[in-house]
Each structure stands twice: as C-alpha cells, then as structure tokens.
From TrEMBL:
The keyword Protein biosynthesis does not apply. Pathway: Lipid metabolism; Phospholipid metabolism; phosphatidylinositol phosphate biosynthesis. Pfam families: CDP-OH_P_transf. GO terms for cellular component: plasma membrane. Belongs to the CDP-alcohol phosphatidyltransferase class-I family. It is a multi-pass membrane protein. Contains a di-nuclear catalytic Mg(2+) center. It catalyses: 1,2-di-(9Z-octadecenoyl)-sn-glycero-3-cytidine-5'-diphosphate + 1D-myo-inositol 3-phosphate = 1,2-di-(9Z-octadecenoyl)-sn-glycero-3-phospho-(1D-myo-inositol-3-phosphate) + CMP + H(+); a CDP-1,2-diacyl-sn-glycerol + 1D-myo-inositol 3-phosphate = a 1,2-diacyl-sn-glycero-3-phospho-(1D-myo-inositol-3-phosphate) + CMP + H(+). A CDP-1,2-diacyl-sn-glycerol binds at D48, T49, V50, T51, G89, R93, S99. Its EC number is 2.7.8.-. This is Phosphatidylinositol phosphate synthase. Its cofactor is Mg(2+). Gene3D superfamilies: 1.20.120.1760.
Length: 249
C-alpha cells in the first residue's frame, strides 16, 4: 500500500498504514518487522512486490467480504495487509533506494485500494444491505475521494503548492470507514446497536470529502490568481526596466 515517502521519492502524504499506527506504534512495529524485511530482501523480493501483494490483500478483503456483509472479517484482512506499508518502506530504506517509479506505483495502487473499499460498501448496500441511499453515499465517497486526490496532484503538476490541509483527507477517510466497518461487523456476533456505525461513518466521510474538495478548489483558485498576478507584475517590471535603460542611453 505504500512505502514511506522519504524512501520512495514521493511527497509526504499519509498512507493507510501510517494513519492507523501512531508514531510510537510505528517505531515498535518497524523494529519488529525489520528482520522480516531483511529476510525478504535476502530472498530477492522487491519493495514493489510487497506493495502489489499488500494492495491485492486489501482489494480481496474489501471485495470478498464487504459485499456479503462480513465487515468484521473483511476489516481484519485489510488491516493485516496494511502492514505492507511498513514492510515495503523498511525494505526500501535498507536498500537505500529512491524511486520515481515506486512513488508512481504507490500512489496509483492507493487509488485502487480506496476504490475497492468503498466499492465493497456500495455492493453490500446495493445487494444484501438493501439500501439505495447508502449505496449512493458509498459511491459518492469513492468518487469524491478520487477527485480530492486528483485536485492536489493536478494543482501540483501545474506548479502550485496546494497548501491546504483538508477536513477529511485520505487517511481520515479510511480510518473512519474501516474502524466503523470493523466495529459494525461485531453485530454478527450479537453486539447490539453497532450496525449503525458504518452508515454514520459513510455520511461523515461523504460530507467531509465534499468540504475537502471545496477547500482544495478554492485554494487552487486563489494560488492560481496569485501566481498569475506575480507573473504579470514581473513582466510589467521587466518592461519598465527596459524603457528606463533606453531612456538612459
């Protein structure tokens, strides 16, 4: 699901694994997983392979379990594969690699994993969950999450910093949804009332994603206007300087 950006050449953006593990837990699991990462390196396994396997596990957990309403076990499977975030990053650090390809692969597979998770929710509500409204909300969460990520990437590609911390970014979307899904899945084991947590979480993510999208669009509009104003001022200043030089002659 993604190597730490310092090792993979990507700007600092929270990944699913980083979002679900605080800095103390990450330090602990990094120490625990370092020998395993070294073992994989000795066996010739690449960080990219671990990234692919981690994403495949998340996709399988989401699309095999969630459409059947098995939210608890689906979340358990997804969480287990989240540790690939730490393993592949650990491997990249041990190998001393920075890679534009790794950053591209990382970011692309993040979108695949997100789509599988919210797609799994949508399939459940379109089928056994029998709730067209929540199916639509799940699809909106999927689509808005992709667009929110695109707005930042597109803004940066045209030279803008997109300097805004959105209300609900990728890490928040996934943590809210997965924690709610896992707890809601306990309803199958007889825990009462928890089944309502996932619908509430999806509404929160949908509204938060919309707010974040608006924040980013407004930020890009403002930064674009500022950049254009600076460019015009620079051109005007250059023109005045040229005329001053000719007058001096």
């Amino acid at each position: 699901m993604g190597q730490p950006e310092v090792s993979r050449g990507r700007p600092a953006t929270p990944t699913l694994g980083k979002a679900m593990l605080n800095k103390y837990a990450r330090a602990f699991f990094t120490r625990v997983l370092t020998p395993f990462a070294a073992f994989l390196i000795r066996r010739g396994v690449s960080p990219d392979t671990v990234t692919l396997i981690g994403t495949a596990g998340v996709v399988a957990g989401a699309l095999v379990f969630y459409p059947r309403g098995d939210f608890f076990w689906g979340t358990i499977v997804i969480t287990l594969f989240v540790f690939s975030d730490l393993v592949d990053g650990n491997m990249a650090r041990q190998l001393g690699r920075t890679s534009r390809w790794g950053a591209f692969l990382d970011s692309t597979l993040d979108r695949v994993a997100d789509g599988a998770i919210f797609g799994g929710f949508a399939l459940w509500y379109a089928g056994g969950g029998n709730d067209n409204t929540l199916c639509a909300v799940s699809i909106f969460c999927l689509a808005s999450g992709q667009v929110v990520s695109y707005t930042k990437a597109r803004g940066e590609s045209i030279g803008l910093p997109v300097a805004v911390n959105g209300l609900v970014e990728r890490a928040e979307r996934l943590v809210i949804s997965l924690v709610a899904a896992g707890v809601a899945g306990l309803h199958a084991f007889g825990v009462p009332g928890v089944q309502y947590l996932l619908p509430v979480a999806l509404w929160i993510v949908a509204v938060g994603s919309l707010v974040t999208l608006i924040q980013r669009v407004v930020t890009v509009r403002r930064e674009s206007a500022e950049a254009e104003a600076e460019a015009e001022a620079a051109v005007a200043g250059h023109g005045n300087g040229s005329r001053g030089s000719e007058a001096a002659k």
